[in-house]
Amino acid sequence: xxxxxxxxxxxxxxxxxxxxxxxxxxxxxxxxxxxxxxxxxxxxxxxxxxxxxxxxxxxxxxxxxxxxxxxxxxxxxxxxxxxxxxxxxxxxxxxxxxxxxxxxxxxxxxxxxxxxxxxxxxxxxxxxxxxxxxxxxxxxxxxxxxxxxxxxxxxxxxxxxxxxxxxxxxxxxxxxxxxxxxxxxxxxxxxxxxxxxxxxxxxxxxxxxxxxxxxxxxxxxxxxxxxxxxxxxxxxxxxxxx
Length: 242
Description:
Belongs to the nitrile hydratase subunit beta family. Its EC number is 4.2.1.84. The chain is α+β, with helices and mostly antiparallel strands. The chain has helices spanning 27-41, 62-70, 74-79, 82-96, 102-114, 126-138, 214-218, and strands at residues 143-144, 157-160, 179-185, 189-190, 207-212, 228-233, 237-239. The strands form two sheets. A five-stranded antiparallel beta sheet has the order 6-5-3-2-7. It is globular. The two termini are 28 Å apart.
């Protein structure tokens, strides 16, 4: 896993942690959040979206934003704020999708950087507003109907793989190559919006809640009665050799 993809459980990060609890630290962050959610709510893979009078005609999901943010140079990833990475991801998607070119993007950016009071465009389309609000309420379920049966059972000990990551991964780095116990076999099968290539996620598959003893991961310097639970796609696990 690339370092910038998952910092949870990583040792040796001695810099102070900022526990700022504000959802949005700057006013502009609300707007980039709204743009991102609007793009997801108007994604052309959603049912009934063909009846919405929108010029946005692309598939766009959380996976697209994550892949673009995580493809940044690690130093840049750590340098930029959370929603600044969103801006980069959204911009890259819109430019590569042909909705705007780099020169137009740079020109508009310069206008607002040089004049903070410049009036922002305002367009109202009730059908689009309704669709985006409904998306916010209902989301886009990853559950899929499938005949695929789980390979593992509750109570079974499994070994988590250490896959070579090319694009994106849904597997926390600190449980790689670790043994865990299946706590819950979730009903049904679940997909991921975009294929993760060599990581093996994309097609619908079972997902499990797996229990880990933190002592196996970090040694004796952990709370004696704590346990770690991680939801893991089936493609990330193997049966233990008998």
